[in-house]
Amino acid sequence: MTTIAILGVGRVGSAVARTALRAGFDVHVAGSGAADDISLLTEIVIPGAVPMTTSDAVHDADIVIVAVPLHKHRSIDPAPLAGKVVVDAMNWWAPVDGESDESDHDAVKTSEVVARHFAGARLVKSLNHIGYHELEEHGAETGAPDRRALAVAGDDDAAARVVMAMIDRLGFDPVYSGPLHTGRNFGPGTRIFNSILTRDELEAALMSRELAA
Ligand SMILES: NC(=O)c1ccc[n+]([C@@H]2O[C@H](COP(=O)([O-])OP(=O)(O)OC[C@H]3O[C@@H](n4cnc5c(N)ncnc54)[C@H](OP(=O)(O)O)[C@@H]3O)[C@@H](O)[C@H]2O)c1
């Protein structure tokens, strides 16, 4: 049984958790505090998921999904994530993250900033270019016609493959875009961000000249 730990039980975290439970994954969830702080929420909103602290949630997880506001990612202790396959589902979003002058926020740099913080992790960018509600509404069986595709970027090929297998089980065609920095091609402000694309359409968009890394 594959175990997914989801850090951040907000809109994205809870939608991914429900989708993953339906797909047969074991799901651990963690908020910013104690497990008890999210136990009632988990019971009501994500029945079947197990609320834990971050370090307990990731301890025996095969995949960790980080779904907190980008400006809060540094509040997650990177130590327990070392060596783990970690999915960065975050985007810089001005209404939430503010108009930082750190220049950390543009689509080019967010993955690199996140990678620096989680330096020991096998970081993969994905799940960030689909609306949280669509995660639950747009999934389809493998091979379904016009199945929606989701992009995956990462420097660690084996980690990217693990995430692609998870994306498939969640109901979407995974498309590898290349190394982590190519995550810029499906971040906010790109043609791919929030677009509903099939595998062929996503591959074509990723290969188009204007998006080439
Ligand atoms: N909304 C979308 O459709 C969408 C789609 C794709 C990607 N994204 C990206 O996904 C990320 C999350 O978005 P969202 O809409 O789900 O945000 P949200 O609804 O505000 O939820 C964020 C959650 O993160 C938790 N959190 C904060 N610091 C934490 C920590 N150190 N450890 C664990 N949990 C922590 C918060 O809980 P506490 O009360 O414990 O702080 C909150 O429940 C953002 O970067 C966003 O850009 C959003």
CATH class: Alpha Beta
SS summary, helix count: 8
Number of E-type strands = 8
Q: What is the molecular shape?
A: globular
Regions with pLDDT < 50 over 5+ consecutive residues?
Answer: none
Mean of all residue-level pLDDT scores: 93
CATH topology: Rossmann fold
| SSE pattern, N- to C-terminal | EHEHEHEEHHEHEHEH
Number of domain modules: 1
How far apart are the first and last residues' alpha carbons, in Å? 36 Å
Strand order of the largest sheet: 3-2-1-4-5-6-7-8
Helix/strand structural class: alpha/beta
Strand percentage, roughly? 15-25%
**Rg to the nearest angstrom?**
16 Å
Question: Which small molecules are bound?
Answer: NADP nicotinamide-adenine-dinucleotide phosphate
Model description:
The chain is an alpha/beta fold. The chain has a single domain (3-211), classed as Rossmann fold. 31% of the residues lie in helices and 17% in strands. It contains 8 helices and 8 strands. The longest helix is centred in the last third of the chain and has 14 residues, at 157-170. It starts with a strand and ends in a 6-residue tail after the last helix. The mean pLDDT is 93. NADP nicotinamide-adenine-dinucleotide phosphate (NAP) is lined by residues 7-13, 30-33, 54, 67-70, 72, 75-76, 89-91, 93, 128, 131-132.
